[in-house]
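Supplementary notes for students who missed Thursday's class. We covered one full example, reproduced here. Read the sequence, then the structure, then the short commentary at the end.
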Amino acid sequence: MSKIGFIGLGNMGGPMAANLVAAGHLVAGFDLVAENLENLAKSFEGVAKTYAIQAGREVRVVVEHDKVDDLLADKLAKEISQKIESEMEYPGQIKVTVIREVRKISYAK
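Structure (token representation):
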């Protein structure tokens, strides 16, 4: 019996991995859809936009600056990380970056 790592369990990869299991191989499957990672992060209050980058190895979370202060941004990063750990399967680690930006503009005339 061989140990096989299989990345991508979608329409094509899922049946291929199942055939390997049926043939008696030990298969460790991995499938991370970036959209799932983005949607998980979007489920938190105060999140304006999310971007899964680096093939799902990082999620950048842009928050509404008037609803999320610096302390809440720190807490939010930890809570998103914990939710990823409890609800998703992935190898290695996923970096969560919360971005809270305020721009003030003035013109000298």
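Commentary. DSSP finds three helices and five strands in the chain. The first helix runs from residue 13 to 22. If anything here is unclear, bring it to office hours.
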